[in-house]
Amino acid sequence: MNDYPSRRKAAALRYEGDKAAAPKVTAAGKGYVADNIIAKAEASNVPIQEDSSLVELLAELDINETIPEELYQAVAEVFAFVYRADKKL
Length: 89
Known about the structure:
Shape: globular
Order of helices and strands: EEHHH
Largest sheet: 2 strands, antiparallel
């Protein structure tokens, strides 16, 4: 690991359309926690989109909390990105 603290922030989302009306935050953190979230996503070939403003908002939510309606548009753009990335594979 690096000798300096990471300043990264990360959040992970899950959406199960058949089970929930909206996506939920499944992980969020900064520093080493963010590095771990990102590393696990990379190891699992989960597409990663950088959006610092959205991460700030998602980090304020509790784990397993459904995203609020105000974030639907921004999160829909993330899921569209993931869908396009997945389709390319």
